[in-house]
Write a structure and sequence with these properties.
- There is one protein chain.
- By secondary structure, the chain is of the alpha+beta class.
- Strands 3-1-10-9-6 form a 5-stranded antiparallel sheet, with no helix packed on it.
- Helix 1 packs antiparallel against helix 2, helix 1 packs across helix 16 and helix 5 crosses helix 6.
- The longest helix has 24 residues.
- It is elongated.
- The N terminus is likely disordered.
């Protein structure tokens, strides 16, 4: 459907006779201008003076248009053509019957139909509404319908629109512009768009924490721990890492200790990346290179030195480097292996640093940062990820014979078939934190490679295979995570619920009483425990930030919001003044890991734990970590992180009793002393680095 505009040719005030008309005959056409729809009609009349016969002959002519010039009847009823592809002009002419040499005409401007959306661009705060209007011209029927991103009335990700054009933005920005379209109800080829940018409210700066004090506190708390774990010490004057004289790894090797590097390095890494602190990034890069040079060995060296009766649980190219683990396997026997979880967890801090360096303008990269990105990338991608994701050593899914190896094939099989082992061993098909770390590590490397191809981070074969691995892993993650509604109405993410059914960690999870249980009774369908679940926000954020490079659409921003809601609305106890957390992220508060050698009594429901006792049987240290990295997308989570910071400044008698029961850690109270933050606050503030003033 198109528009026909009718206007008087010339001055627009009268119809002029042709040059050869006699002065005593004058023809005037009415109306002199009109707007018509295609296929619309307009009655014209002609007034003739100076002749006894006042009749006229009507005709239409011109340059032409799709569908012709239109038509006019003997009585002057003009009908516009049925369709017009571009603006053209035709003439409606009245010719005197008495003297055919005498005529007058008006010009009819034929224009395509159009819809205009107002406003054409708009910025809409998340969770608010804005009304749009559509001006329809050139159509007999102005009815229209509204769509969002070409797919109906919208959804919780992009927002929704009513039939009247009222747009409601989603609770969190989708991260890309939203296209709002007004479409003609009678001709779907006629439409107009408005571009909507959904803005999140600015994250409020943390109070009670600053970047400078967090950096000082990290150096006071975390740096000595790293130096003790690895036997490497930092010289802040020479700005180099070197081996601690006389340090030697424990008899079991350094492998298991690598596990603890990630919690220590992550806060500093996130701070440096978010602030673009090149000096701190350089310190971290130097640490990773020193660790690689001084504390790794090769698979070949481990196998060569293995006792004759050793159990060999490691495979790969002899030159591949790793962190050795000699695990006791019985009297006089060891298992020669590596700690895949420890390595993948630690590597996450290095891969994030590689990605940050690749995203920097080349002019800002120091020579040491460039050297680190190029040198360490081979260790991460080839010697670790490719070997473990595609290698021959079975290490995933408890070697269940029904799940294919290597691990990428296992992910593809599980996502495609939905296979679940029998109830007692259902956990053998679960996604473990080792696997999530590796997916995120691979995504970091793919993104870094795309951001700075000149650094030659990945070769083509490695790039293709890592993309395949991330695609398979993300597909399985998406299949295991579902949006649900919490009891208080929040959109939450049910993450890996039931994955661990049958695992010994959960053997007593049905119990919620203070007494340590002695007869196993497990609750089915549980999600991850609140301590291990800190991996989830870290992995989800990495996968979200690297979607463009990996080609995956999951997770979207609303998945991050829902995951944060799970922590706030289910795990959190709801007491802002004394925040505590249930033992499981889904809100369940049962016993965990009863009978293990490290915590013989297990982890009781959170209200019964005692952090100051030895061993510490509270999950608080793990539960507080990581979640601040989702606060940028979730105001409720940002508020909760602030409550945890505030608690460090509350030294009232009641607060001290609560903190010593739940937040006491590594021999220290959860209190700020002379601007130095306690251990657990360093985690929280570091993970919220974007909000540090």
């Amino acid at each position: 459907m198109v528009v026909a505009s009718l206007a008087l040719q010339g001055c627009g005030v009268k119809n002029l006779p042709s040059a050869n008309n006699q002065a005593d005959i004058l023809i005037l056409i009415s109306p002199q201008s009109e707007t018509l729809a295609a296929d619309g009609v307009q009655q014209f009349s002609a007034s003739v003076t100076g002749a006894a016969n006042n009749s006229v002959i009507w005709s239409v002519s011109g340059a032409g248009a799709t569908g012709g010039y239109g038509s006019i009847t003997a009585s002057g009823l003009y009908t516009a053509p049925p369709s017009i592809s571009a603006a053209v002009t035709v003439n409606v002419r009245a010719t005197s019957v008495a003297d055919p040499s005498k005529s007058a005409f008006v010009a009819v401007v034929l224009q395509p139909a159009a819809i205009t959306v107002i406003p054409a661009t708009a910025s809409v705060p998340a969770g608010t509404r804005l009304s749009f209007t559509a001006n329809v011209t050139g159509l007999n029927n102005p009815a229209l319908r509204w769509t969002i991103d070409g797919a109906g009335a919208g959804d919780r990700i992009s927002g929704t629109v009513t039939a009247a054009g009222v747009y409601t933005a989603p609770s969190i920005s989708p991260g890309t512009n939203v296209t709002l379209t007004a479409v003609s109800a009678v001709d779907a080829t006629i439409s107009a768009n408005a571009t909507v940018t959904v803005t999140n409210p600015p994250a409020l700066a943390l109070t009670g924490a600053t970047y400078a004090d967090e950096l000082t506190s990290w150096n006071a708390v975390m740096l000595p721990w790293i130096e003790d774990l690895c036997g490497l010490e930092w010289d802040p004057v020479a700005r180099v890492w070197s081996a601690v004289p006389g340090w030697s790894p424990p008899p079991s090797g350094i492998g298991p200790q690598i596990y603890y590097l990630e919690p220590a390095l992550r806060p500093l890494t996130h701070m440096a990346v978010m602030r673009g602190d090149v000096a701190v990034m350089d310190q971290l890069a130097s640490f990773h290179l020193a660790l690689l040079s001084l504390r790794t060995t090769t698979i070949g060296a481990m196998l060569d030195a293995a006792p004759a009766n050793a159990i060999l649980f490691i495979d790969g190219p002899p030159a591949a480097r790793t962190f050795a683990w000699y695990e006791p396997a019985g009297p006089g026997q060891v298992r020669v292996r590596e700690c895949q979880q420890c390595d993948a967890q630690y590597i996450s801090t290095a891969s994030r640093l590689v990605r940050a360096i690749a995203e920097m303008p080349a002019s800002q990269r120091t020579s040491s940062l460039t050297a680190f990105a190029q040198t360490f990338s081979s260790f991460i991608a080839s010697e670790q990820l490719m070997r473990l994701l595609y290698g021959a050593t079975p290490w995933s899914h408890w070697d269940n014979p029904n799940i294919p190896q290597p691990v990428v094939a296992g992910w593809q099989f599980l996502a495609a078939t939905g296979y679940e082992p029998p109830a007692p061993i259902r956990y053998q098909a679960s996604m473990t934190d080792i696997e999530l770390w590796m997916i995120a590590d691979a995504a970091d490397m793919i993104s870094a490679d795309q951001s700075a191809p000149q650094l030659a981070i990945l070769d083509n074969n490695t790039r293709v295979q890592l993309k395949e691995a991330v695609k398979a892993g993300v597909a399985l993650m998406q299949a295991r995570c579902h949006h649900e509604v919490s009891p208080d109405g929040a959109d939450v993410l049910s993450a890996f619920a039931g994955d661990s059914d049958g695992h010994p960690d959960l053997a007593y999870s049905a119990y919620t009483t203070i007494q340590q249980p002695t007869v196993p009774s497990a609750k089915a369908g549980l999600s991850w425990d609140s301590s291990h679940s800190y991996r989830l926000p870290l992995v989800f954020r990495t996968l979200y930030e690297t979607r463009a490079a990996t080609g995956n659409s999951y997770p979207a921003l609303d998945d991050l919001v829902a995951l944060g809601n799970t922590y706030v609305h289910l795990a959190f106890n709801g007491d802002a003044s004394m925040p505590d957390f249930n033992n499981f992220i889904d809100g369940w508060n049962g016993w965990l890991r009863v009978g293990y050698s490290d915590i013989p009594g297990g982890y009781p429901p959170h209200q019964y734990c005692a952090a100051a006792q030895s061993p510490n049987n509270c999950l608080t240290a793990g539960t507080l970590q990581g979640w601040g990295q989702l606060a940028f997308a979730n105001p409720d989570l940002a508020a909760l992180e602030q409550h945890v910071i505030d608690l460090a400044y509350d030294d009232s008698a009641q607060a001290m009793l609560f903190k010593d029961q739940h937040y006491f850690y590594n021999g220290g109270h959860y209190s700020v002393v002379a601007s130095q933050y306690p251990w657990l606050m360093v985690y929280v503030a570091g993970d919220s680095a974007e909000r540090l003033p």
